[in-house]
Specification:
The complex is a heterodimer of chains A (about 325) and B (about 300).
Chain A lengths: L2 H15 L12 H29 L2 E4 L1 E6 L3 H7 L2 H34 L4 H12 L2 H11 L6 H8 L11 H29 L3 H9 L4 H29 L3 H6 L11 H11 L3 H25 L9
Antiparallel strand pairs in A: 1-2
Helix pairs in contact in A: 4-8, 4-10, 5-8, 6-8, 8-10, 10-13, 12-13
Chain B lengths: L1 H4 L20 H28 L3 H4 L14 H6 L5 H6 L9 H31 L6 H10 L5 H14 L6 H9 L3 H13 L3 H8 L4 H12 L1 H16 L3 H6 L8 H10 L8 H29 L7
Classes of the chains: A mainly alpha (about 325), B mainly alpha (about 300).
Amino acid sequence: MTTLATRSRSASRAAFSSGPRGSHRRFGDLRVALLFIAPAMIGFVVFYVLPTIRGIYLSFTEYNILGEPEWIGMENYQAIAKDPLFWNSLAVTGQYVFLNIALQTALALGLALLMHNVAKSTLIRGTLLLPYLMSNVIAALLWFWMLDYQIGVVNQFIEWAGLPRVAFFGSEEWAIPTQAVINTWRHMGYTALLIFAGLQSIPGHVYEVAKLDGASAWQTFRKITIPLLRPVLVLVLVVTVIGSFQVFDTVAVTTGGGPVNATRVIQYYIYQRAFTESDFGYGSAIAVILFIILALVAFIQMKFLKGNESDLD
Amino acid sequence: MTTTASRAPLAKPAGRRRPSRPRFNAGRTGAWALLILAIAVSVLPFLWVLRTALSTNNALAGNASSLLPADFTLGAFKRVFGLQTPAEAVAEGGSGAAIDFWVYLRNSVVFSSITTAGAVFFSAMAAYAFARLRWKGRNAVFSLFLGTMLVPPIFTALPNFLLIKNLDLLNTMLGMVLPYVFMTPFAIFFLRQFFLNMSREVEEAAMLDGAKHLRIFFQIVLPNAAAPIATLALLTFIGQWNEYFWPLLVGSQDDVRVLQVGLGVFKSQSPQGAPDWSGLMAATLVSALPVLILFAAFGKKIVNSIGFSGIK
């Protein structure tokens, strides 16, 4: 089920398979392989490789869809460096990513521990997964309604509690936290399930030894669960950070970048530059920057948190 | 499994594996309370959506927090499916603009089915080549395929949009499905992993009998992998159903618009100053329903598939 578990098995299998067979096929299976891989290869080249190259090329051009792209060297990047809206989008996205990760990881870890210790029932896990199966658009609209300033049910509760109503989508300070909460709601159960799978792969005897040594529950958690869970936690972090940087759907459907610039996240800004303002060169250049940021983030997380090493070995 | 279950509650005697009878325990009760809270947060919003969808817009403002539908009506659903006259729709707080979710529903079904069928089948073929055939450069090519998982979708979306535009396929179903229909890196990864762990014996016996790879693939590998392929198809279908960004770029016209995009459009039509909340919630429910049905039927499969080979 987990790649962590299957990786070593597949490696030994691959080593085995190159051994005993195949003397009657000196050229390997290249021709058959080409046949089998042809459709996927078309998709790979046409919709992944070429667009990647074209995207990088476009970032060095001025291009408004009509006519031909015009090579302008680094001008887009120089303009971006001086573009306050770009820096704003970076700051807003950073804020979103931070809130999202903090909320989501903490809640998911808690939920995973609950699933693991109290309720292993598939029904419960399934129920908690339900929000994740809904689209971003549905999650956004559902909360857009429940958090409505005038007649949203959440503001009714807030009023009953004697507090002033909150403009969740309409005020600059609340807009991004609200987006983060919606996303957390949608992803919490899914992330918890990933961590739960990690918890289940920790062998029971480790805990028995800890118990014999008289470790307390907190000590066991700190000294055994968390270290052994680290590879899974790192993967979860990498996946959620990369995913959060690309927030778009919920923003596009609810606030459309506003109020003022409060939710103009990077991907929404790219979308606006490229499609609303027909500035494909500029949009592509921001996309390249986003790509580089994501690659760096993934690299740093894997390297410093040592995500690819397990403490179990 | 049982040892970890008895780890959290401190009160239990050491070394005891499974209490013969569940005892009252503060830690356990608290844990259950939290779990029930989490379940409520996950499920109650859907009931609230249903309640709103069955309400009349004009009554919603006065009964913002009543648990039951305010002034029960099926009008919102009729409106969403274009069964109300503009006058009726306006009277119930709708925009009166033509909206027909049947068309969007059809488009979503077509879009998700074609992309799922294509991606799963072609990815299975490629996964077979990566797992079972031996050819030069196999691992390098596989790494390249996997590498595409790291490219953010927005990055390829801009050039892909231009390509579809150059091919004159904007606002066609073909243009919408093309980038997804040949493969998804995740599907290849997922199936290759399964094929690698599948026993080779039957295949090798067939090969000694002179069966060719195509026959082995269709008659042995695919049937044996029916379960993971079904899981993958399920996950892919749900993912495609929920896709928003690409259909928004390429399929903005009514005849190819999918549900997710239609929902966004419906939301932005703000009639009479305030949104048509009951209509919007009815539309949301309609968009969620197919996934809810799949989930009711195959929930266990979905839940168990999520380890570290999760949906995305």
